[in-house]
Structures are given as structure tokens and as C-alpha cells.
Amino acid sequence: MRIGAAFVQKWVVPVSVVAAWEFFGHTAILPRYLSDPSSIVAALWEVTADGELLQAVTASLYRVIAGFAIGTAAGVIVGLGAGLVPAVRNFFDPLVSFLFAVPKIAFLPVFLLLFGIGHTSKIAIVAFSCFFPVFIASSHAVMSVDKLILWAARNMGAPRRTLFFRVLVPAAAPQLIAGVRISLAHAFIVLFAAELIGSHAGLGELIAEGEDAARFDLMFAGILAFAALGFIGDRILMAVRARVLKGQAMGTEEEVAS
Amino acid sequence: MSARGWRLIGRWYSIPLLLVVWQVAVSSGLVHSRLLPSVVAVWDALVVEIGDGVLIYHAGVTIGRALTGFALAAVVGIPFAAAMARSPLVRNLFEPIFFFGYPIPKIALFPVFTYVFGFGTPSKVAFTFLECLYPIVVTAYLGFRGIETRLIWAAQNFGASRTTVLWRVVVPAALPAIFSGLRIALPVAIIVVVLTEMIGDSIGLGYYITIWSTRFTFQNVYAAIVVIGVCGFALDQALDQVRRRVVHWQRVIPR
User: Fold this and answer.
1) pTM of the model
2) Of A22, B112, B168, B245, which has the fewest CB atoms closer than 10 Å, so is most exposed?
3) Exposed, middle or buried: residue A169 (CB in 10 Å: 0-12, 13-18, 19+)?
4) For chain A, what percent of residues have pLDDT higher than 90?
5) In a domain, B164, yes or no
6) Residue-wise pLDDT tens digits, A239-251
7) Does residue B149 lie within any of the structural domains?
8) Residue B167 in contact with residue A80, Cβ under 8 Å?
9) Could you report the predicted ipTM of this complex, rounded to two decimals?
10) Is residue B19 part of a domain?
11) Chain A residues in contact with B198 (beta carbon < 8 A)
């Protein structure tokens, strides 16, 4: 019975919000720009049926995946390098600590000028934003690996390669993946802003289009699709993490947060 | 030169080095100066725009909005996180919203915010509030929940009242987590304000960047980027100083 009560409590807020939205949306008490859930679902069905949604999702996904992959890969490689080699660390640390505080989207005008208004500029700005959290997380992760583990492995005669792949990387993995998760969130934020500010395709553009045409149900359909993409992306990352870490993160803050 | 001097150079040489490479690349004509203005041009723009107060005005607008939203999120979020950690009812009601909503890119809702709150400061502050609320609540909540019950039992054993336990045991134990949440949220606040100003506004650094980039005057864009970087860095350092004061027993926060 207790479990039943907890279950009800967990669902009462979301369900009542949607119900109230639906009710007040139809009775025209809410302003028109808030639309209502059933119209949004209808709009979602409409854009799915005519393929517009698929096109927008494909464009957005392509950009976010490419940018995220490039930025994260660069962040991991340079970050691991910075964690291991003091010279690399000394070169990148001042630059990163200055640039980290700057919203990377501020560079969008520059990127638009350099790479044009198509895919490339979005991929570049997403990659650029993804680089920083991953770089910081992986260099910190490497530096905070327990020296005893490394010494123990070296003592048992592990060659450098084994030391790197079997000891250092696994030990750094939890913190590193936490950085990757932050960078994935950044990727979606930056992509959305970039698509809204200057783009000819993608979900951001679909949302702006719905807004311009006063089709608020369409706007919300786009918002819903975008939110879903971000959510699913995070879930996939967490599933991958669970496999990679296999219990390493059990009981830590990260585990609860996922 | 002293050893300390050399160490400073070894630690910070990359910024001047990059500036020199940048300047040489532009003045030798390797990179077109319309694409990338020279360091000197950016510096001149910075001096002029700070001198006549324009950049200071816009920076004031942006930082004011960011800090307002951030402070609101902290004031609302931290007690809320405590309530969620202490009361099963509040936890059940709101936990799904925070933990399912956490990975959702909330920026997608910004168009709705502009309809509800208008184009000016209120929509930016409200949106910054929302974006900061998530990291603050989630980290503080985990901090409040992660308190060792032994500590609370011990305090109760010594006859501490509920309020004493709250203020002398629970809050101090959760402070490191609260501060790491604040430290995540602060740059988020600045990012969100600049970003939303770029999408639509007529004041603020984001607007300043947009307007000068449409006029292809990129030295001003870079000048604004420098200002944002300096502000962000200064605010982060200030928060860290506060943390050192308040959480004086803890030296380093794992980020």
C-alpha cells in the first residue's frame, strides 16, 4: 500500500499539469501561444506524416552527433595528454581556463563567417563547445588517479601500453564520462541556439518556423521533439556508461543522478 | 630571473605566444583581416568601447541578469533541495521532475518564455533561473541525502534540537555539495544570458555580439568575447573565494 502511495505521488504533478494545460487551453483561459497538449500531439503527427519532422531531426542529429564526436574525441585525447605531460598541460591550461567561462556560442558569428550557414558551421561550434568540459574532466581524471595503483602495476612489470590502457584509462573513466555527459548537454544547447540564430534546416529552424507562422502547436511539437532527442541521447550515454564502468560508479553521486 | 619567474612563464606562456602568432598571421596577410582582426585592432576596440562606457553598460546588463537568475535559483533551489531530502512526500512529488528533466535541453523552451515574459529582462532572468535551478537542486539534494546518519544521531544523542541539527549539522555537511552545484550553475547562468540575448534582445553583450557581427566589425565581437571571458573568470574566482571562507574545512572541491 505504501508503494502505491509513492507511485501516485510521483505521477500526480506531471499528470495534473498536463490535464490542467489541456483543460484551460481548450476553455481559452490560457493565452493562445500556450496551445494545448492534444493539438500538440496532432501537430506532431502532422509533421511526422509529411516527413518534415524526419528531415529536421535528421539534420539536427547529424550536426549534434558529428560535432559531439569530434569535440569529445579531441577533448579526451588532448585532455589525457595534458594529464600525463606537464608541457601539454602548461600550454592548454591557461587557454582553457580563460575560454571555459566564455559561452562558446559567442563565437557563432565567427564560425558562420568561416564555415558558412550550412552543416559545417554548426558541427564546428558544437565540437568547439564539447571540447572544454571533456578536456577539463579527462585531464583532472588522469591527475587524480591514485598513484599507488600505477606504482603497483609498474612494480608488477606492466609495460607502458598496458599501464595506459588497463590501469590509467579505466581508473580515469568515471570522471571522464561525467565530463562527456556535461559536453552532451552543451552540445544540444549550442545546437539549438545555432539553429535558431542562423540555419536553413533542423529542429531549431522548425520551431522558429512554427513561431513565425503563429502555429504554436507546431512550435511545441518541435520543442517536444528536441527535448526528446536530448533526453534519449543522455539515456544512451548512461546505458553505455553502465556497460563501460560495470559497477565502478555504484553508490557514487553520479549513479544517483542518472 | 628567479625560479618563480621562470615558473610563471612556464605556466602562462601559451596566451602571449598565441597572441603573437595571431598578430603575425594577420599582419603578414596570411589570414584575411576581415575574417580575423589583428590583436591590436581588438585591443583598440576594447579600449575605445570600454572608454566610452558602451561595453561596460552591456556587460552590466548581462551580468546583472545572470546574477539575478542565479541568485533566485540558489535562494529557491537550496531550501527546496533540503525539503526534498528530508520529506518523502516532497521527494516523491518533485523528484521525477528534477531527475527526468535534468537531461532535457531546456533551451528548447526559450521561445515559450519570450511569449510569457516578453523580450526583455524578465524572460532572460526567468530562463536563467530555470537553467540554474536544475544543477543547484540536483547537487544540493544529493549533498543533503548523502549526509551520514551517524552524524545526525550523534547530535540528537547530545540533545540537539531539530533546528540545531539542521543548522549545525545538516547544512554544514551539505555545504560542499551546495557549492559545487553553485559552481556548475554560475557559468551556465552567463552562457544562458548571452545566448538568449543573441537570439533576441536590444541590450546586453549577446546583442552587442550579434549587432557587430552583422556589420562585419569583428574586432568589436572579439572585444565582447574578451569581456565575457574576464567577467566569467572573475565571478568564478569570487565564488571560489566565498566557498573557501564558508567551507574553510575543505580545501579542494572535486569538480
Assistant:
1) 0.83
2) B245
3) middle
4) 17
5) yes
6) 888 888 876 654 4
7) yes
8) no
9) 0.78
10) no
11) 105-106, 108, 193, 197
